[in-house]
């Protein structure tokens, strides 16, 4: 990666650096500047969740970053929404181990 890339940032010190870095990138990338303000805000917030995921995995290396990310995203949903999604993805048939 080129100098100044996201890989150069140490998120273990301050995970909010991720969101700051994304905001700087958003201000300079032409394709992203075409996004609506709501989409830009979503992107910044989503990148902050990824940063938090990396911070947690830094403390617990046996965890999977994408699994932690999806767990954090699910915790942002209401209990009713989590239940609805769980039931929608439930498998029919006998319980297997």
Detailed description of the structure:
The protein has 97 residues and is an all-alpha fold. The protein has helices at 16-28, 30-33, 37-59, 65-75, 79-88. α1 runs antiparallel to α3 (37-59) and α3 (37-59) crosses α4. The protein starts with 15 loop residues before the first helix and ends in a 9-residue tail after the last helix. Mean pLDDT is 75; it is low at 1-9.
Question: How do the strands and helices of this protein lay out in sequence?
Answer:
Blueprint: H1 16-28, H2 30-33, H3 37-59, H4 65-75, H5 79-88
Helix pairs in contact: 1-3, 3-4
Task: Summarize this structure briefly.
The chain is an all-alpha fold.
Order of helices and strands: HHHHH
The low-pLDDT segments are: 1-9
The main β sheet shows up as: none
Strand content: under 5%
Number of strands: 0
Instruction: Give the overall form.
Output: extended
Mean pLDDT across all amino acids: 75
Alpha-beta content class: mainly alpha
State the helicity in percent bands. 55-70%
- The domain count comes to 1
Radius of gyration: 17 Å
Distance between the termini: 43 Å
**Helix count from the secondary structure assignment:** 5
Keywords:
0% strand; 5 helices; single chain; mainly alpha; 97 residues
């Amino acid at each position: 990666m080129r100098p100044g890339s996201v890989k150069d940032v140490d998120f273990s010190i301050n995970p909010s650096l991720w969101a700051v870095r994304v905001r700087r990138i958003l201000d300079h990338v032409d394709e992203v500047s075409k996004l609506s303000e709501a989409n830009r805000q979503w992107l910044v917030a989503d990148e902050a969740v990824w940063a938090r995921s990396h911070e947690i995995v830094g403390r617990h290396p046996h965890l999977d970053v994408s699994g932690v990310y999806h767990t954090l995203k699910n915790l942002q949903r209401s209990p009713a929404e989590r239940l609805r999604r769980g039931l929608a993805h439930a498998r029919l048939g006998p319980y297997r181990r």
